[in-house]
Structures are given as structure tokens and as C-alpha cells.
Amino acid sequence: MSIFNMLLRNVRSSVFPFAMKERRKNGLFLTSFYKPFLHRTLNLSPYLKDVEPNPPQKLDLDEWKNIMRAGQQKEICEPTSKCEEDSALTAMREFVEMRRLAGKLIPKNITEEELKTLMELTTKSSRLKYLKFLAIRERKKNARNAKREERREQRKELLGEVENRDTDDLRNSFLTCFRSKSLDNLYNWRAAYAMIFGQPLVFDMVFENCMTIVELQNAVKQIMESEGYNRRSVDPFHLHFCNLSVDGLYIKAFRKCYGKAWDNLFVTETEQCYTNLFPRDRLIYLTPESRNIMKTFEHDKIYIIGSLVDKGGQKGASLAEAKRLNLATARLPLDLYLRWNIGGKNLTLDQMVRILVTLKDTGDWKKALQFVPTRKHGGFYRN
């Protein structure tokens, strides 16, 4: 028995190292080594047959934990910022209510968008001015709605009286009824024709950052009136809104005022400058500070109007823009035809368009300058 145990021990000691060597050649071992690293690592060491081992790939567990914690913090911050915005809106509503209780001129209804606009204003005086503007606009809107309802009631009474009559004198007429929809189609066809063959008229929209919110809204209303008057003319201009930023304040105000009609409007809006669209020798920038007097209307020129409403009295913005681009300038001959009394010679955007449209159709300065407000002058000269 002792002899058998001795033989078994000798066989085991001679065969076991060889078996372990063959197993290492054909197997994959996961080994962990202790090293005094600052962070924990996991080493994966492959052992392939007849292939030199690649350097071990290390996975930094601490860095992975930091990434996961950062993601959780980002998810937590999003609702926090939303809560801060809600609290700021609540504080602004309380500010509006306090001013209303104090007897100030405050609108009865104020939207969330108007509250956000109010939050963007930095000073107390600017916020009070904006609230006063909203209150005045609300009163005007209510007055217009009341007049509209009154006219609607009067129209119903008149129609009721006509229907109660026995005679058909009003219906039997040689005058055909020209409906408003047909008239709108006619105006749209003229505007579409002007986009192909009409004389261009450029609105420079580069001044949107030079105006307050109230001034920009006034500018948008004046441009809307200009577009409507131009579309109703016999030979309308092809309107170009140049330097119009896609995400700017102007485009947001236009989409809010026009609604769905903005996409169907017969105008050209672009981010490019007019110097990239038209030859420089045909461009004339109309500005009241120019030294050149516009004596005649030139049909081969392209006139530029600066879309700026500045109630602060800052002068020279449009002239500076024209000089920066090295363009020709001109001003209306107001002193040659009108007895100018008081006030600046700055006209609104819709007044400028009415004057230019009348000049284009008639060429008569007296007819064109009738759109200048009479409060600014004492009448026309005789000659």
C-alpha cells in the first residue's frame, strides 16, 4: 500500500504542471492584481494561443459614477428652473395686482406672454410704462369692439326695415354687387403681378434691436398698414423685407399679428442685405437727414425705408446705416412745398409708403404730400 501511494504521488507531481500549462494556452483567465492606484480598476487579461496579449483595458469605476451623478443632477435642475420661472411669474402677477390696488393705469386682463415680456424689463419705470401701454391698448380695443357691435345692431335694423318693405326697388338695379371676396382676389392678383414685374421697395429691418417693445409693435402696425395700402393701389410695389432675422423680434411680431395670413402674404422676406440682392447704383436710402433733395420719382431706382420707430428722439440712425454701406441718400422736398411750422421731418412708415405710391401713380408732389399730417405744417406754397 505504501508503494502504491508513492507511485501515485510521483505521477501526480509529473503530470499536473503539464496539464496546467496546456489549459492556460487554451483558456481565458480573469485575474486581479493589487496595485496602489488612487482609483479602483478591473483588469481583463486574455490568453490566446500563439497571439501576443494586448495591453489590459481599464474601466474607471469612479469616473463612471461621476457621469451618472451628473446626469441625475441635470434631471433635477430642469424642474427646478421651471419652478423658479413659475415663482417669478407669480411675483410679477402680485406686482401687477399691487399697482392696480394703488389706482394706477393697469390692464384688466394680462396674458402670460405679456408677463414674460414684463419680466424682461429691468427697471421699474419701464415696467410701469409697459403696463400703461397695455392698458391704453386694451381700452382702445374695447372701444372698437363696442362701436363694431353698435354698427352691427344698426345694420340688422336697416336690413329688417328693407325686408319689411313691399317694393323691390333696391333689388332691381342695373348696378351689380361687387363682393368683398372678389375685391380681395383682385388685390391679390395685383400684388402677385408686382412680385414678378413690379418696382421693388425695400424695408430695412436691421433696427429691431434699437427699439423698445412698444416702438417695435408700433413699427409692425405701420408696416401692416403700408402693406395693405400698397396692395390696394393700382400699380403696387414689390415689397422686400431685408435683414429680417428668422428668430428675431420682428418675425415673431409679424406672425402674431398676421397669423396664418403671413405665409400667404405677397412680399419677399429675407435675411440677406439689399446690397446682395440689387445693384448698388440703383439703391437710394430715404432719410430725413440727407443733404440730397428728392425732386422727381425715378421708376428705375430702388428706394429703401428704414423700419425704425424712435420716440426717444435719436437722429441719424438711417443715415449712418446708408453711409456704412456707401449708398446714395435722399429726403423728401418738404420745405419746397410746405410751410413747415414745428416738429421734426420724420414721417411714419405708412405715410412714406402712401407718398411713394401716389408719386408713382401720378407724379404730383402736391397730391403725394397731402399725407403729411397737417399739424406739422401751415399748408402748401402757392407756386
CATH architect. name of the domain at 184-380: 3-Layer(aba) Sandwich
Poorly predicted segments: 24-39, 41-49
What percentage of residues falls in helices of 4 or more residues?
Answer: 40-55%
Fraction of residues in β-strands: 5-15%
- Determine the CATH topology of the domain at 184-380: Alpha/beta knot
Major sheet: 6 strands, parallel
* Biggest sheet, spatial arrangement of strands: 3-2-1-5-4-6
Give average pLDDT, whole number: 79
**What is the C-level CATH assignment of the domain at 184-380?**
Alpha Beta
Query: Can you count the beta strands?
Result: 8
Number of helices: 11
What does the overall shape look like? extended
- The N- to C-terminal Cα distance equals 148 Å
Secondary-structure-derived class: alpha/beta
Explain this structure to me?
With 383 residues, the chain is of the alpha/beta class. The protein has a domain at 184-380: Alpha/beta knot, CATH 3.40.1280.30. 50% of the residues lie in helices and 8% in strands. It has helices at residues 2-26, 61-101, 112-120, 124-164, 180-197, 213-231, 249-258, 317-324, 334-337, 349-362, 365-368; strands at residues 200-204, 238-242, 268-269, 283-286, 302-306, 328-330, 338-340, 377-380. The N and C termini lie far apart (148 Å). It is built from eleven helices and eight strands. Residues 24-39 and 41-49 have low confidence and may be disordered. A six-stranded parallel β-sheet has the order 3-2-1-5-4-6. It has a two-stranded antiparallel ribbon with strand order 7-8. α6 runs parallel beside α10 (349-362).
